[in-house]
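Allow me, if you will, to draw on your knowledge of protein folds for a short while. I have a record of one protein: its chain in single-letter code and its fold written as C-alpha cells. I should value your view on which stretches of the chain appear to form regular backbone elements. Thank you for your consideration; the sequence and its C-alpha cells are set out here:
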Amino acid sequence: MSTSRSVSLSRRGVLAAGGAVGIGALLAACGGGKGAADANGGAKGGPWSFTDDRKHKVSLKGTPQRIVAFTGTAAALHDFGIDDQIVGVFGPTKLKNGKPDPQAGDLDVDKVTILGNAYNQFSVEKFAGLRPDLLVTNMYEPDALWFVPDDSKDKITKLAESVALTSSRVPLVKIIERYAELAGSLGADLKAKKVTDAKSRFEKAAEKLRKAARSNPVKVLACSGSSGLFYASNPGINADLMYYKSLGVDLIVPDHLDKGGYFESLSWENADKYKADVLLLDNRTATLQPKDLAAKPSWAKLPAVKAGQITPWSSEPRFSYAGSAPLIETLAKAVESAKKVS
C-alpha cells in the first residue's frame, strides 16, 4: 500500500461533510431511507440478505436494484455481471481528460452518477437523490468504509444499508471469491461464459507466475513514489502482494513498517535500503511514475531502474478474476524476463 491510501485513512477526521443542505427533505422523499423500495424500481423479488465482512447482516425485502458503490467495487461487480443495478459511484472514476480511471475497469462511467471523483468528495445530496437500496465499498481497516467520509458517514448510512468487504490482510483470491459471492446474491450468473473464461485466465496467469518465480527467483520490491518519500510496501498486508508471495514471488518485506503496517516510508536518500532486481511501482494517478521520478538522482541510481526492470503495480486491484488476471500476467512476464542486478 502506498502513501495516498495511508493519508486517506488518517485524514478521515478532517473531511468536509458536504451536501448537508436538503438531506432531511431527500430522506423523507426516499421513504425513510434504509431498504426502502422505490416506485421507479427499488428492491425487487423475494427477501434478500448478505452478511458482510463486518459480520453485519443486511436484510432487505428484495434484491437491491439501485446500488451505489466505490468505483473499484462497482467495476468488480460489473465484471461478474452486475450492470444496470449500479446507479452511482464514488472514488477515482474519470481522469482529467475525461477518460475512465483505471480503477473503473470496464464499467461504463457515462451511465452512472458520479458522487465524487476523489477521496474527500462524496455528494450526500446526489446519493440521496439516487434513492439507493444499497451502498457497497471496500474495507481496508476494520469498520472503515473506503472513500466514505467519516464526517458524513452517519447521514450516508441512514439513506441506505451498506455492505463492506475486506480488502487487506487476506490473499487476493479470497477477496475475489467474496465479491463473486456478493455478485451472485445480487443476481449475477457466475456460470456465464464471461465469468468462467475470466476465472480460467486468472488461474492460468497464477500458474504462469508460480513457474516464473520458481525458475527465476529474483527479488521484487513493491513500492510507491511521492515528491518527498519513497515507500516500500509490505507483502504481509496488501492482498495482491500476499497472493503473489504465496505463489513464490520473492517479495521484499520492509523491516521498519509505519503505523498501519502497509509500508515503510523512506527518505529519497535511503531509497536504496532494499536491494531489488525488479520494482513493482504503484501506478495510480496520485503517485509519481518513472517519467516523474527520472529527475531524482537516488531513483536513477537504483539497480532495477538502471536495468529498466520496472513494472506497474495496481496497488488497489479490481477484486475480480477479469480485473486481476492481467496484473498477474504482467508481473509474471516481468519476473520471467528479469536479470539479477541487486
Observations:
- The two ends are 23 Å apart (CA to CA).
- The first helix runs from residue 3 to 10.
- Confidence is low (pLDDT under 50) at residues 1-33, 35-41.
